Structure formats: C-alpha cells, structure tokens
Amino acid sequence: MSTQLAQEDVGPRVVVVGNYKGGSGKSTFAMHLIVALLKAGRRVASFDLDVQQQTLSRYIQNRHRWAQQNGLALELPHHAPISDVGGEEAGAADHVTLFTRYLGTLQDDYDFIVIDTPGSESHLSLVAHGMADALVTPINDSFVDLDVIVNIGATVDAKPTPSRYARAVAAALEGRRAVCGRATDWIVFRNRLATLASRNHKQITAALEWIAPEVGFRLAPGLSERVIFRELFPMGLTAFDQLDERALGANGGMSRVMARVEVRSLVEEIGLLPPDTLPGEERVPARGRRPRAVERAG
C-alpha cells in the first residue's frame, strides 16, 4: 500500500518518524526525507518533538549556517522545535496542547509536515503517532534494536510477539481510525546494514517478515552503514545535495552516490513522491510557491 493519496481535501500529509529507541537514525532519515520533498517542489513544515536532544533542529541550523557561509541556495523547511512552540519550561500537558494547536495553523500552507519524535516513550510522541498519515520506523540491524518492535524468545521454536512500542503504535493508530476513520501506512526499515550477509541478518529478516502482517507494518529497503551520513551532519547536508570537495573530501564521491541511491530507493518505496519527482530534477512546487531557501550571497 502506497502512502501517496490525494490530500487536497484533508490538508497536508503528516509523516512521523518514530521509534522508542535512541540512535536508530530517525533524525538523519527525517532530514533526508525533508530535503527530498523540498527538492521535488513540495512545501514542507517540520517539527522536532525531542525536547532534550533536538538533533533535527541542530541539523537544520547547521544547514542554514553552511548555506550562508558558502553562498549557497539550500532548501529549508518551515521548522519548529517543540521548545520554540511551548518554551523549554512548559510541562508535558502544555507541550501536547501547544503542539496540536500549532499544527492546526499549518493546514493551508504546506503539502507535508514531517515530525521527528524522541527516542523514548512520552504522551507527546504518542499523540504525534496518532496523527500520522505515514509512520516511518528505522531500526538498527541488531536484536537489541529489534526488541523495540518484536519480542524474541530464547528458544528456536518461540514465535516473535509484538513489543511495547508495537502495542503503543497499534493503540495510537486504532484511536486515529476511531476518531477520523483514516488509516496509517506504517513502514519499517533497517538501518546501518552490514555489507556482508550474516546469520544475524537472516534471523532479523525472518523475524520482521513473520511479525509484519500481525502488527500491521510493511518493510522497506534498508540503508547500509555509511560514514557519509554522519559526516554530513555538521554541514546540514544530505546525500541529495550537490556536494563538492569542501563537504566530501577528496574521495567522497562514490560514497555519496551509493548513499543517494539507497535513500532514493527507500523514499520511492515509502511512496510519498512519484519516482520522476525525486531529487535530480528540480520542479516548481504546487500552487506556485517555491520552497524556502537561503539566497546566494552577493
């Protein structure tokens, strides 16, 4: 099932990147998705709901600074950290109220709203999950990270069962269906895949394929372990950007190409954009408005 549905009558598509475990690559993927959407001419707003880490917010700030320092026109979303919406001293209940209220003000101005959630359980994160038209969950390719979604028994014949996060997602999505009658497309992909196949890889594949129909998610192509994803963070860049030697170093070209191919395949599988609008060919956004960008210096 693709997430690419007509949205004109119901406002922007809400894409939530969620997982209760930190370090799974949520913010890195959220940034790549945001840039892919912007480069395809879509109008994008983004939220960072992680009050403590605010990794996505720092990623976007780094992008703005790099653009200014180097005279580049880099696409930027309309971004709001939750601390800016409610203040750092706001309580959990205030954050939920302010977040939902602020979200309502964006309905007529954007095609997509991308929400990055914290790597821990919170009521605010659960509320965001319940708003998702598409929920994207990255997990590292290990049994420790898989345990967030699936409980694996110690015996060979033990069947995988849904974990705490999977049950929380199911409750949030069921609540959404009860309120508005709309389903959520839940996509899980594996991050930091090893280049060589292993017994661990096969076991995790089998567990995910077993549990996916029961829990209600679908699997998308994963991303390999690539240093370039971490190297681009200080500059706020992504594999979709035009990168020169200042960003890549002398030997980074092939790494960038492979990273871009993988992320492109993942975004295509999620189905938010038709293949012919993915980065590589700029387009004017709908309703005649261009994505926000930092103007070239001079």
How are the elements arranged and paired?
Blueprint: E1 13-17, H1 26-39, E2 44-48, H2 55-70, E3 78-81, H3 82-86, H4 92-104, E4 112-116, H5 123-130, E5 134-140, H6 143-146, E6 150-151, E7 161-162, H7 164-180, E8 185-191, H8 199-215, E9 218-220, H9 227-231, H10 245-248, H11 253-270
Parallel strand pairs: 1-4, 1-5, 2-3, 2-4, 5-8, 8-9
Antiparallel strand pairs: 6-7
Helix pairs in contact: 1-2, 5-7
Describe the 3D structure:
With 298 residues, the protein is of the alpha/beta class. It is 41% helix and 13% strand. Helix 1 (26-39) crosses helix 2 and helix 5 (123-130) crosses helix 7. The relative contact order is 0.20.
User: Which range best describes the helical content: under 10%, 10-25%, 25-40%, 40-55%, 55-70% or over 70%?
Assistant: 40-55%
**Total separate domains:** 1
**Regions with little confidence, pLDDT below 50 for 5+ residues:** 1-8, 281-291, 293-298
pLDDT averaged residue by residue: 82
Number of strands: 9
CATH topology: Rossmann fold
SSE order: EHEHEHHEHEHEEHEHEHHH
Q: Structural class of the secondary structure composition?
A: alpha/beta
> How can the largest sheet be summarized?
7 strands, parallel
Shape: globular
Give me the number of helical elements: 11
Overall radius of gyration:
19 Å
Q: Supply the CATH superfamily name.
A: P-loop containing nucleotide triphosphate hydrolases
Strand order of the largest sheet: 3-2-4-1-5-8-9
Distance between the termini: 47 Å
CATH architecture label name:
3-Layer(aba) Sandwich
What's the CATH C level?
A: Alpha Beta
SS strand fraction: 5-15%
